[in-house]
Amino acid sequence: MAFSTVNKEVFGSEEAFATVKDLRVTFDSGKTRSYKWRVSQLKALFDLTEGHEKEIVASLYSDLSKSETESFIQEIAMLKNSCQAAIKELKHWMAPEKVKTSLTTFPSSAEIVSEPLGVVLVISAWNYPFLLSLDPVIGAIAAGNAVVLKPSEMAPATSSLLAKLLGEYMDNSSIRVVEGAVDETSALLQQKWDKIFYTGNGRVGRIVMAAAAKHLTPVVLELGGKSPVVVDSDINLKVATRRIIAGKWGCNNGQACISPDYIITTKNYAPKLVDALKTELEAFYGKNPLESKDLSRIVNSNHFARLTKLLDDDKVSGKIVYGGEKDESKLRISPTVLLDVPRDSLIMSEEIFGPLLPIITVDKLEESFDVINSGSKPLAAYIFTNNKNLKEKFVMNVSAGGVVINDTTMHLAVHTLPFGGVGESGLGAYHGKFSFDAFSHKKAVLYRSFFGDAPIRYPPYTATKMRLLKALVGGGILNIVRAILGMS
C-alpha cells in the first residue's frame, strides 16, 4: 500500500486535524468494523514482526544497546504472541455477550455488544519502543478502530522503523504513524479523539489527561511507580536472587516500569541477601559489567545525569555495597546495590528507572506493608516467601497494579491477566481480551416483542397498578402473586 510519512518539521495542528479527519472518514465508512479487516491487519502486524526481526533487533540496539536475546524475548516474541492470541480469539471477543433479563421486562432478551470507539491515539514509550508501541495497537485494531501511533522520539531508530514498516504492511487509510517530539505530540493532543492510550511517566500522563478532558476523551494511562520486593528468610535464596536480577537488570537494565525498584527485608537477613546478589550478578554480568553485552545502556545523557544525581546524594553515596561504576561516554552504569538506604533520601522519593537497587531493612517483615502503603500505589509488587499467611496478607493489604508471589515481572506474559496501574501508577488496563475491551464500548441492547404489553405501565394509575408495579420492581414471584390477589 502507498504510504507517505508526514514531515516531522511541518506537522502542526493543521496536519494533525487533517490526519484525524481522514481517519474518521474511513472509520465512518464502516471499513474497520468487519472481522475480515480486523484479522487482516492483525496478520499483517504479525508478518511485519516476523519478517523483520533483524531490523527490529538492530534498531533496539541502536536506541538502547539491547542484547539480541532481550530484544527477541521481551519485545518481538511477546508482540507476536499478542498478535496470535488476538487472531485466535477475535471472533469470540466480537460476539455479543448474552445476559439475563428481569421479570420486569418479561418477555425479553438482552446482550452486550462490543463496538469500536472510533479514532484513537496511541502514544508509546522509549524503554520498550517496539512492544509498547504495537501491543496497544493490537487491541485498537482488534476492537475495530482507526489508529494513530506516536512512537517515542527518544528511541529514534525504532520510531523510524515503525513508520516505515507500518507504512508498507498496514492499511494506511486506517492506521497512521506520526513521528516527532513535543510539538508533534502537542498538535495531536489538541485534536478530538475517541480514546487516548499513553505509556510513560506521571508528569506527561497528567498533561495527556488534561488535554483529553477538554473533549471528554477517555484515557488509558500506563505509568509506573516504585515497585517493591519483599524478601522473607524461608526461601530458596539462589532462585529468588536470580529472579530479582532478571526482573531488574535483565529488563533493560532497570529501565522498565515493572522492574523492582527497592527491596525490603529484615536486618538479620539483609547480609545474606546482599552476598547472594553479589554472587549472582557477577555470574551473570562478569567482573566488569560495564563491558557486558547483556546489559542495556542508559537511554540518554539526561537520564544518566538523573541517575548519577541519585547516587551522589549525601544520604546514599556511602550506602553502596556493590557496583556503582559509571562510564558517561558510553552511557553505562553497572548494576548497583545499596544497603540501609534512608527512606527520606532522594532515591526513595521517585521511581528509579535504572540499574540502582536500594535495600531497606525492617525488624519484622510485616512492617513492609506499612512501608509500601505509605507511598503511592506501585505498578507492581513482589514478595518472596513460603509463608502462606504472609502471602495472603500481602495480596489483601498491598494495593498495586499487579502482584507476583515468588517471582518478578512474569505477570506481564500472562494475557489472561489485566496489565495496568492503580492510583498514580496508572488508569485502565490492557493485554489479551483486556486490550480489546480497552478500545471498545460495551453497548447494552434489550430486545422485546409487541407481545406481553402490560397496561399497568400506563396511566391512569390506580392503587391496584401501584401494588403490581411495586411487586414487579421488588422482584419475586410470591410478591407478584400476593399483589394480583390483592393481599398487602
Describe this structure in words.
This protein is an alpha/beta fold. The protein folds into 2 domains: 227 residues, Aldehyde Dehydrogenase, Chain A, domain 1; 193 residues, Aldehyde Dehydrogenase, Chain A, domain 2. The strands form 5 sheets. Strands 10-13-14-9-8-15-16 form a 7-stranded mixed sheet, with helices on both faces. A 6-stranded mixed sheet has the order 5-4-3-6-7-18, with helices on both faces. It is globular.
Alpha-beta classification: alpha/beta
Enumerate the spans where pLDDT stays under 50 for 5 or more consecutive residues. 1-8
CATH fold type of the largest domain: Aldehyde Dehydrogenase, Chain A, domain 1
Quick one: CATH class of the largest domain?
Alpha Beta
User: Which architecture of the largest domain does the CATH hierarchy give at level 2?
Assistant: 3-Layer(aba) Sandwich
What does the overall shape look like? Answer: globular
Arithmetic mean of pLDDT: 94
CATH-defined superfamily of the largest domain: Aldehyde Dehydrogenase, Chain A, domain 1
Strand fraction equals 15-25%
How far is the N terminus from the C terminus? 73 Å
The tally of beta strands, per DSSP, is: 20
Please give the domain count. Answer: 2
Q: Quick one: biggest sheet? A: 7 strands, mixed
Give the neighbour order of strands across the main sheet: 10-13-14-9-8-15-16
Continuous helix count: 16
- Percent helix: 40-55%
Keywords: NAD, Oxidoreductase
Catalytic activity: an aldehyde + NAD(+) + H2O = a carboxylate + NADH + 2 H(+)
GO molecular function: aldehyde dehydrogenase (NAD+) activity
GO biological process, one term: response to water deprivation
